[in-house]
Amino acid sequence: MDELRIGDPEAAAGSLGTYLEAVADGSLSGNTVRALRGDLERFAAWCEERDVSPLPALAGTVVAYVEAMSGECAPATVRRRISSIAAVHRAAGEPSPLEHAEVRRALQRMRRRKGSRQAQVEGLTWALRQRLIEAAGDRTIDIRNRAMLAVAYDAMLRRSELVALQVADVKVDRGGSASLLVRRAKNDPEGGGAVLYLHGDSVRLLREWLARSGVRGGPLFRSMRKDGCVGGALHPGQVPRIYKAMAKRAGLSAEVVDRLSGHSPRVGAAQDMIASGIELPAIMQAGRWRSVRMVQRYGERLLAKRNGAAQLARLQKRR
Predict the structure, then answer these.
(1) What is the pTM of this model?
(2) What is the end-to-end Cα distance of the chain in Å, rounded?
(3) Amino acid 42: pLDDT
(4) 20 CA to centre of own chain
(5) Within its chain, how far is the Cα of 273 from the centroid?
(6) CB-hemisphere CA count at 13 Å for 15?
(7) Residue 248: which H helix or E strand, with range?
(8) Phi, psi (5° rounding) for residue 171?
(9) Which residues neighbour 134 within 8 Å (Cβ) at sequence distance 6 or greater?
(10) Fewest beta carbons less than 10 Å away: which of 53, 83, 224, 299?
């Protein structure tokens, strides 16, 4: 590593991939590994443009990177990218940039300047779910999209979980509902799996997709080629694009469409549960959350109407 200390950005950038393998030693999910790789590739390219070394990176380099990225990205994104840089330094046996007081101060300045609050993802609640499903067309791709949205909402699936589903993971019950096996999740890296619920109306949409597509086994949701033929398994990055396209067709505003993400059905289902008065432990179980923090964030406006001040106002019969 000594030759990299004098500043050989090209060689250092090439070594990032080697140490990424040490960071992603099989204990991380595919989405986390992709995020790490993307973060490190961006940092390496940024360093190469400035002829500085990304590994090991001087504190001043990381400070400059924080300041540059904070003008383009949300604070949470910048913090994640710096954490990725720190992880690969530790894997390489180098001091973490986060140990430098200058870097910590740069992150603090960013938080003071921009705040730490993240923009809220738009939840595809039941009303929006129905609106998108009803506005979809009759092409095979539309039938797939309806089934995807219905399954994602009922089972509160992350986009990576949705595209990983196999036909064999769906078991239809006599009553018409179904159980859905999610083999691996973000917070289940060992693959213990979880069995989730699908309502009969979602099962009917799913049956329609399978009948029209001819899919009998393997990946449940497939890509669609321009000629209308069914392809291979979907990439996770396609999921938010599908939701956004459905929302545009349904006439949702551009502002709402922009806030949709691959997690929107999951968020919307949580918001619907909160609005219906379902208790937090049951919501956490359905969404497989280990902490109440994310549920509270997704439903903070709804929960505010149930806090102590709101209950007191109702008891006082204030108008």
Answers:
(1) 0.66
(2) 70
(3) 86
(4) 21
(5) 20
(6) 21
(7) helix 238-249
(8) -120, 110
(9) 250
(10) 83
- Residue 3 is predicted with a pLDDT of 32
Tokens of residue 3, six digits: 């030759």
Tokens of 2: 């000594």
Contact criterion met (CB below 8 Å) for 20 and 36: yes
CA 114 – CA 96 distance, rounded (Å): 24
Give pLDDT, residue 75.
Answer: 83
The single-letter code of the amino acid at 108 is Q
Alpha helices by DSSP H, listed for 92-158, are: 101-114, 126-135, 140-155
51 class by beta-carbon count within 10 Å (0-12 exposed, 13-18 middle, 19+ buried): exposed
124, 132 Cβ separation under 8 angstroms: yes
Neighbouring residues of 234: CB distance < 8 A, sequence distance ≥ 6: 162, 163, 219, 221, 222, 223
- Give the pLDDT score at 8: 46
Ranges assigned E (strand) in the chain: 170-172, 178-182, 194-198, 222-224, 230-233
At 69 the pLDDT is: 86
Among residues 117, 97, 118, the alpha carbon closest in space to that of 106 is found at 97
Q: What is the pLDDT at residue 24?
A: 54
pLDDT mean values, one per 10 residues, the chain (319 residues): 38 56 56 78 86 86 89 82 86 84 89 64 91 94 96 93 93 91 69 84 95 93 88 89 95 91 91 87 87 76 72 78
Bond from prior residue into 56 cis (ω within 30 degrees of 0): yes
Q: At what angle do helices 280-287 and 264-275 cross, to 10 degrees?
A: 160
CB 36 within 8 A of CB 23: yes
